[in-house]
Design brief:
The complex is a heterodimer of chains A (87) and B (251). With 87 residues, chain A is mainly beta. Helix content of chain A is 9%, strand content 38%. Chain A has one domain. In chain A, strand 2 and strand 3 form a beta hairpin. The longest helix of chain A has 8 residues. Helices cover 19% and strands 31% of the residues of chain B. Chain B contains 5 helices and 11 strands, in the order E-E-E-E-E-H-E-E-H-E-H-E-H-E-H-E. Chain B folds into 2 domains: 93 residues, Elongation Factor Tu (Ef-tu), domain 3 (Beta Barrel), CATH 2.40.30.10; 131 residues, 3-Layer(aba) Sandwich (Rossmann fold). Chain B starts with 12 loop residues before the first strand and ends in an 8-residue tail after the last strand. By secondary structure, chain B is α/β, with parallel strands linked by helices. In chain B, strand 7, helix 2 and strand 8 form a beta-alpha-beta unit. The chains are: A mainly beta (87), B alpha/beta (251). Chains A and B meet through strand 1, helix 1 and strand 7 of A and strand 3, strand 6 and strand 11 of B. The complex binds zinc ion. Zinc ion binds next to loops of chain A. Chain A: InterPro entries: DUF6510. Chain A: It holds the Pfam family DUF6510. Chain B: GO terms for molecular function: 2 iron, 2 sulfur cluster binding; oxidoreductase activity. Chain B: Keywords: 2Fe-2S, Iron, Iron-sulfur, Metal-binding. Chain B: This is Ferredoxin-NADP reductase.
């Protein structure tokens, strides 16, 4: 499967979080490497979007969508700075 | 999460095609007007949504190839023969047609004048689109930040914005290098090989100059270029990457 990066899902993330998430700092829950969401590995083609750590391949984020509703699992991050609702 | 209409929230908008032009046999640039467009930063994307008569929808993300100062939102769309969206955009879309889009999105792979430089822009194939936006923005703002660019294409015919690159190459703050990896004209004086450490060492700024680097293209290209620069001593924190920009990633 082709590997993309977090830039590719900027629109989906902004739709979900209400602001730009690609510049957000994040920390992998498995290996502890920190980075920004734009640089995480993104895969399409399954039932949704899967984001993995570019260092250890740990699943960081899964996004699926059913009848206009997003289902978002961010439990793979040890830390994720989401944008402020007032930004 | 409910999708309520909060002001400023990302919404789908109707854009109108004002002009289309083939830049290469596989890539068409589409100029759009978007009523109420909030403006964009050089390097940002839009998501495009097509709806089939039966209601089926497909979305793709495209880099904006125009500068904020250009007046139109330009997308350079590469025709992927097995694609759901790009054959329609390249072959069917006409001047006056409407297109649904949302954006601009993405705040990472962007360059504005205050970010400074010197700039090193590295493009593989249609990954040149967001970097072209940066170069046009640079010119429109009369920036004096020195720019080196390295553009890789299979052949001269496949090189995007060819004439514009030649014009830029004649301007003072720009130093444009082109490598043609498969087919070269007989009198070609540019590079003739795939990007590698030696080529990067020749073309990039010396690491001591602390250049700000943007790399966009197919995934393998981006990985090679980024790893090559880090290997030469460039600071990874000064390298921003985007994989497959412009080629219509499915969000
Ligand atoms: Zn990890």
């Amino acid at each position: 499967m082709t590997r993309y990066d977090g830039n590719a899902i900027a629109g989906t993330l902004e739709d979900i979080f209400g602001g730009d998430l690609t510049t957000a700092a994040c920390v992998c829950g498995q290996c502890g490497q920190s980075g920004v969401v734009a640089e995480i590995a993104i895969y399409f083609g399954g039932p949704g979007i899967v984001a993995r750590c570019p260092y250890c391949d740990h699943v960081l984020l899964v996004i699926t969508r059913h009848s206009g509703m997003y289902c978002v699992d961010v439990t793979g991050f040890a830390q994720l700075s989401t944008p402020s609702a007032l930004a | 999460m409910a999708r309520t209409a909060i002001p400023g929230r990302l919404t789908w908008q109707q854009a109108t095609v004002v002009e289309t032009r083939f830049d290469t046999p596989q890539v068409k640039s589409i100029a759009l007007t978007v009523p109420g467009w909030s403006g964009h930063r050089a390097g940002q994307h839009v998501d495009v949504r097509l709806t089939a008569p039966d209601g089926y929808q497909a979305e793709r993300s495209y880099s904006i190839a125009s500068a904020p100062e250009d007046g139109y939102v330009v997308l350079s769309v590469e025709r992927l023969d097995d694609g759901e969206v790009s054959p329609f955009l390249v072959d069917e879309l006409r001047t006056g047609d409407e297109l649904e889009l949302r954006g601009p999105v993405g705040g990472y792979f962007v360059w504005d004048e205050p970010l400074g430089g010197p700039l090193f822009l590295v493009a593989g194939g249609s990954g040149l689109a967001p970097l072209r936006a940066m170069m046009r923005h640079h010119r429109a703002t009369r920036s004096e930040v020195p720019v080196r660019a390295l553009c890789s294409a299979r052949s001269l015919e496949a090189l995007l914005y060819r004439e514009e690159l030649m014009e830029l190459a004649a301007c003072d703050p720009f130093d444009i290098s082109i490598t043609l990896t498969r087919v070269q004209p007989s009198a070609w004086r540019g590079y003739r090989r795939r990007i590698d450490s030696d080529l990067l060492a020749e073309v990039a700024w010396p690491p001591a100059d602390r250049s700000l680097t943007y790399i966009c293209g197919p995934t393998a290209f981006v990985e090679t270029a980024a790893a090559g620069l880090v290997g030469l001593g460039h600071d990874p924190a000064r390298i921003r990457t985007e994989r497959f920009g412009g080629t219509g990633v499915q969000p």
